[in-house]
């Protein structure tokens, strides 16, 4: 059996910085993905409510969310473009050999990206230039475009986990590509729906969390109530659905990637009546240090009975499986994801119980404290989900067909470390700018809603509604020309 040190000695020196660079950029970009995928739906849903009920508060929320959505999309352009370049620069072995097989997913994502950009531009342009219902119907394709982008990325990733749809020639190169099979792999369905619902949950809890903080600070107006209720309701409804989808996805891994499942559950030897360990650390000799041991539960969860046989890590050579450290990382990421998901179910049940009994939000400050934390917790689960997926697949970049070490670039390690430092500095600046813009918009909106007359006068005038003209200005304050010229008559609604 090869030791961990021996395995590391056989890897090229540029592998570690290449993996660190890819991990950093992916971990940064994925924080924006929930808003790119799900915020359009939540915004359009609020917009529809506003028009259907003639609700000015809902309309104001929808318009402001659309502004945040646009800024987030612009930042996502930067981080997503870097990731696309890194695939070719850092992993030329994979892209050169397998790009013709699974590259369609990236093509779909690119088309969805450009379509989403056009639709966001139309949506922003239409606020004061289109009839209300026309504007809303033109926004309806925006959520499907976002879902199409997720389709492309998950199709590519699920193929890397369960590659199919090709044959191999005498040199081991792929031939006779079947595009349909390459897109719809065994892991595509479980992975796609688990991912999409996670994005909607995360966006819902994060947006609701903003208004939960406002509620805790004493802003108990209808604006904050509605801003909290709609996205939180979407997230709460999806929380138990996500738990079932996550269970289904884990069982799909058990059947299609048994060694990855063994890493997720730190199962060393193939056996039945396998216990479940909550957290704990796998040692290189197969022993487990720490953690909470629950007898037979892993076999029950995998096959619904204690006699279910669970494949262990030692079922394959050491060179073909995650190391003990990698297995522990995947295991902890998986357990953190499951733990947070379970706590979110309790939060959703609390919300449902209060609503069914009183037709009102829970009155406890602890509920709103928990709701404020839920968004950040969901972002943690998104990170943990990708850690589980990628680390658990090691050492394969294309499962059972190409190792990560075979795909990595030949660029010198020193250059890659320098590139990582540059990317980290750029990303700090980009995310800092994003945060500054969002906080500036928040301050401006708060002053517009709650500020003093002097503070509001210092701001550019706002419309009474996004579709209506600006209020008739006071001649003394605006210096209107004789003849009564005003915003209403001079194109102020444009």
Automatic annotation (TrEMBL):
Q: Which GO terms of type biological process are on file?
A: aerobic electron transport chain
* One cellular component (GO) term of this entry: plasma membrane
InterPro entries linked: Cyt-d_ubiquinol_oxidase_su_1 (IPR002585)
Q: Where in the cell is it found?
A: Cell membrane
- What keyword terms does UniProt attach to this protein? Cell membrane, Electron transport, Heme, Iron, Membrane, Metal-binding, Transmembrane, Transmembrane helix, Transport
Question: Where primarily located?
Answer: membrane
Q: Which family does it belong to?
A: Belongs to the cytochrome ubiquinol oxidase subunit 1 family.
| Protein name, UniProt field | Cytochrome ubiquinol oxidase subunit I
